[in-house]
Write a structure and sequence with these properties.
Layout lengths: L6 E5 L4 H16 L8 E6 L5 H15 L8 H5 L2 E5 L8 H8 L6 E5 L3 H13 L7 E5 L7 H14 L5 E3 L7 H11 L13 E9 L8 H26 L8 H13 L9 E7 L1 E3 L2 E3 L2 H5 L8 E6 L11 E6 L6 E8 L18 E7 L3 E9 L10 E9 H4 L8 H11 L8 H20 L5 E4 L6 H8 L8
Parallel strand pairs: 1-2, 1-4, 2-3, 4-5, 5-6, 7-12, 8-17
Antiparallel strand pairs: 7-13, 8-11, 9-10, 11-12, 13-14, 14-15, 15-16
Helix pairs in contact: 1-2, 1-12, 5-6, 6-13, 8-9, 8-13, 9-13
The structure holds 6-O-phosphono-beta-D-glucopyranose.
The site of 6-O-phosphono-beta-D-glucopyranose (BG6) has 2 residues, from loops.
Length: 479
């Protein structure tokens, strides 16, 4: 049985992720009695704080980011917090952190969200201070490297101190309820699985569209770009969940074994299978927004949009394109998966002048959480002018179906699993490496062919070449 940690160290405790997500998530878990009564949370970062000033800092963040009906829970969380200032690039600070943590024999969970350059010194510091033993597990927040080689280097450094069963690589999309629901949809229903293959599915679309721009992440984003920021992790995880074979059980080894097989079966892209873009000034929801280069303050060759046509080389998906698309400053925020089924093999209605449309399953992940299956139906009437058929949606709105059930944000789930030691929703090393391997070849192709991002107007669906990428095969992006 995995141990349940009774101590949690948050690296980057004064950072943006901690303020917006981690502290609010811990507050909710604490308020609902989901963490042990004696759980101690130690924040650490470079900023100078003592326990009291960190609690005041945390209180401000919680006031800002928690919904009003949750604010009464703040004092109870604050009572669990303490703080140790630490410059992770210097080994000497780690013994003070170990002193603050005290005995860790009952289990310690560490949440590390830090600049990639600090991973190695941090791991070394933890190991030297006795904070990496058998009763310690570590959660790693992205970015875990910038390519296969640097990710291997980070993984080697971490695995020198922690065994794989104590390493929890975070992809926060896996913590999203609607992403987990994909597994329920596929494997808790008999309906879809017999059709879930190349015989019945014509293509798949995965879109992660954002309306936000650079959001002040100047240094990070311009180094990363959309491919590494969104496709390498979140989108490939979504693709793996859509495409994987049924695992034998919902446990960490079975699920991750199946995902990694998909990731390793991704065909390397050919020239013409990808399109990149960068937004220019435009308008989102009627509000004028500047172009990427203006936000950045200089010209840049970084892509803020990418569209890809991928293939999975195995029996199930032979010849089925997976169209992936993500970008900043698109017209609306939407993460969705479209499963486009094939046409019926023969239409009995053709002689009556009626056309049939192939079925389509749309899985809305966010902000709309719904599952919509389009089916053909007969338009009511006496058909004197000919039989008419029309698509109608079978629509399930998840918030309506589960009204009254508390909605959990991704980090609540992930922090709890980290504390309790369930790795199912975390990414294994072989998955990350398969993801990087594929992404690296795409980037190598871009530089080999001198590809530069095509401009697109903020508030549009990306460069027109992205539309052409799909239309060449008679496919229209779902909008
Ligand atoms: C992060 C990316 O991993 O995911 C961001 O670094 C992106 O650029 C974010 O905005 C999107 O997450 P979500 O949960 O808002 O879809």
């Amino acid at each position: 049985m995995p141990f349940v940690a009774d101590k949690l160290i948050l690296f980057g405790a004064t950072g943006d992720l901690s303020q917006r997500m981690l502290l609010p998530s811990l507050c909710a878990l604490n308020a609902d009695g989901l963490v042990a009564d004696d759980l101690k949370i130690i924040g650490t970062a470079r900023s100078d704080h003592d326990d009291d000033s960190f609690r005041a800092f945390a209180a401000d963040a919680l006031e800002k980011y928690l919904p009003d009906d949750r604010k009464s829970a703040i004092p109870a969380l604050l009572a669990r917090l303490s703080y140790q200032t630490l410059d992770a690039s210097k080994p000497e600070g780690f013994s003070a952190l170990a002193g603050k943590a005290g005995k860790v024999d009952d289990g310690l969970a560490i949440f590390l969200s830090t600049a990639p350059s600090l991973f190695e010194p941090t791991i070394a510091g933890l190991a030297a201070a006795g904070l990496a033993g058998e009763r310690v597990r570590i959660g790693l927040e992205k970015p875990l490297g910038t390519d296969l080689e640097s990710s291997r280097q980070i993984n080697d450094a971490v695995s020198a101190a922690f065994t794989e069963d104590r390493i929890f690589r975070i992809d926060h999309y896996l913590g999203k309820e609607t992403v987990q629901n994909l597994l329920a949809l596929r494997f808790a229903n008999i309906l879809f699985e017999p059709l879930w293959n190349a015989t019945h599915i014509e293509h798949v679309q995965i879109t992660v569209a954002e309306t936000v721009g650079l959001e002040g992440r100047v240094g990070f984003y311009d180094e990363a770009g959309a491919l590494r920021d969104m496709v390498q992790n979140h989108m490939l995880q979504l693709l793996a969940l859509v495409a994987m074979e049924p695992p034998s059980s919902f446990d960490s080894t079975a699920v991750r074994d199946e995902k990694v097989k998909v990731l390793r079966s991704l065909r390397y892209l050919g020239e013409g299978d990808s399109v990149t873009g960068q937004y220019r000034a435009g308008a989102i929801d009627g509000t004028a927004v500047p172009g990427y280069d203006e936000e950045l303050g200089k010209p840049s060759g970084t892509e803020t949009f990418v569209a890809l046509k991928a293939h999975i080389d195995n029996w199930r998906w032979k010849g089925v394109p997976f169209y992936l698309r993500t970008g900043k400053r698109l017209p609306r925020r939407a993460t969705e998966i479209v499963i486009q089924f094939r046409r019926v093999p023969h239409s009995i209605f053709a002689g009556k002048g009626a056309t049939t449309q192939p079925n389509r399953l749309i899985i809305g992940i966010q902000p709309e959480e719904n599952i919509r299956l389009s089916v053909m139906a007969k338009v009511p009437g006496l058909d004197r002018g000919g039989l008419r058929l029309r698509e109608v949606p079978l629509d399930i709105s998840m918030p309506n179906a589960f009204a009254g059930v508390k909605k959990r944000i991704a980090y609540e789930r992930l922090l709890l699993d980290l504390i309790e030691g369930d790795q199912t929703l975390f990414v294994r090393r072989d998955e990350v490496e398969a993801q990087w391997d594929w992404i690296d070849t795409i980037r190598a192709g871009w530089s080999e062919h001198g590809m530069v991002p095509k401009p697109y107007t903020a508030g549009s669906w990306g460069p027109s070449a992205a539309i052409a990428l799909a239309e060449r095969e008679g496919v229209t992006w779902h909008e």
